[in-house]
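Just curious. Invent one:
>
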Amino acid sequence: MPKLIENNIIEAFQKRSSFNRDELYEFYLNYEPNLKESTFSWRIYDLKKKDIIKTIGRGLYVISYKPKYKPVLSNNALKIARKISERFEEINYAIWEIPWLNEFSQHQTFNQMIVVEVEKEFEESVYYFLKDSLKMNFFLNPDEKQIKFYISEINNAVVVKRLVTRAPISKIKENKTTIPIATLEKIVVDLFADENLFHAYQGSELIYILERILNHYSINLTKMFSYAKRRKKEQEIKQFISIHIPNFLEDIQYD
């Protein structure tokens, strides 16, 4: 029942600019007719702790809940993931696709690039296996020249590169295959850290992407900055955010 009530609260109030304590109490009475004031105070505390509501004034609230990001993998990405799972069962890897950024970017792209990141010392093995198994344009740890003269000239490149340790990754299941994918926290940091590879998403476009991500999805700031620190981009990202998106740090969820 508590989960049902929480979902109904989100549905009932998420389009409201604000709602007050009395309105929330009346809502709860539909499910708990004998709800005491002291118990109701704990209900509010629990909603805040779960980041479902936040206070914007005395006895005044807004819905702060945002869904977790669940991207859709293309057929080519699924083929790659299945091949890796068949041959390399124990290695750590993650996959994500440039088209995912179209949801957030101002300028839409037809670029179908797929990024496959593999734990250290397995990049070459995975690269040559995929290259021999699938008819796609694979590139291993491309340098600036390769990016400029080759990858930028085609729209379906597959970049195989090293996976940074403890990178934020989630998993989705497609049929019988469990596929590790990059989280939004990881993607944001990678856009900063790999400027050459993601040159089309710098400057004002990067600001726009961050704002859209913030408005639509729940972001774990702790995980993002922890990963940014390992990529030596923590201070740069914090400075970028404080200058271009000053409300970012207030709104993102700390977990």
